[in-house]
């Protein structure tokens, strides 16, 4: 008996597929036409405002004022971009702030190279990059004039806070997760109480506590600068959330792996360093990337307690009498800055998920 070879099913054309999805019934046709018309109208209105009728050029403030309702005034970006990127940093030293941000961008790009994906190389890369960033921003070494933290601002301050929080918070999160899994009940329960308490508090209240309340209870030598107190508080908040993410990755591992490692005579730190943590970070990669993205976006909260970050710089750039009519354009520019950083982080996370086959079977 001969086998019958089934005939191949012809694939529908693009027009047939489009008709089947959006115009198969009268109701689908009406809904598709209405939404397509609305989308085209909104798209054209945005393009008309942002490009067709927009005003460009740093010296076009008077033209913008005469054409306030015709289109966007991107002249404010051309004229005030230095305030957004550098804040209160001295004008003649702003190249240092720009170079410092470029170094951190290069560090982030190099972190995408698989050669750096090791417990030794990646921390060294980030610590070295952050040290170079800090030396350029602060100065006082290699003939660079000193610029105190009170004069930092703009994008550079946002990048500094974000990098410092992640560098401090990630090792602390690992320690918290290991203590949370301790076999000694009093250690595990105490750590669980600390983590749950911090996670139940709003980030803004923690920032206020470390910035304003903490100096009243600390000795004079331990007070330090307000910026670093806020960073420590933010890092603690980040560590508590990230500790639960890492612990979830650890719990996803089969129990037999750790038992097999014990049977092979591996010490506790060998089991943690070679067996548990690498797989835990792999399992927890999607929520870890999400937590890092949230951390970068929430750095804008520091503007409420008096720091001149990129959000506050954008507000100051459009707060003068000359440019107070172009607030929307300035916030769009600041939003694009956040979009570039956050979208890049999310795309990198998606790349890591595909490369490491996270969530696939």
From TrEMBL:
Membrane protein topology class: Multi-pass membrane protein
Pfam families xref list: BPD_transp_1
Main location class: membrane
GO annotation terms (biological process): amino acid transport
Keyword Ribosomal protein: no
Subcellular localization, as worded in the UniProt entry: Cell inner membrane; Cell membrane
Entries under InterPro entries matching the protein: AA_ABC_transptr_permease_3TM, ArtM/GltK/GlnP/TcyL/YhdX-like, MetI-like, MetI-like_sf
Keywords: Cell membrane, Membrane, Transmembrane, Transmembrane helix, Transport
GO molecular-function terms, A-Z: transmembrane transporter activity
Taxonomic superkingdom: Bacteria
GO cellular component: ATP-binding cassette (ABC) transporter complex
Transmembrane spans: 30-52, 97-117, 124-144, 156-179, 200-221, 330-351
Family listed: Belongs to the binding-protein-dependent transport system permease family. HisMQ subfamily.
Protein's name according to its UniProt entry: Polar amino acid ABC transporter permease
Organism listed in the record: Mameliella alba
Lineage of source species: Bacteria, Pseudomonadati, Pseudomonadota, Alphaproteobacteria, Rhodobacterales
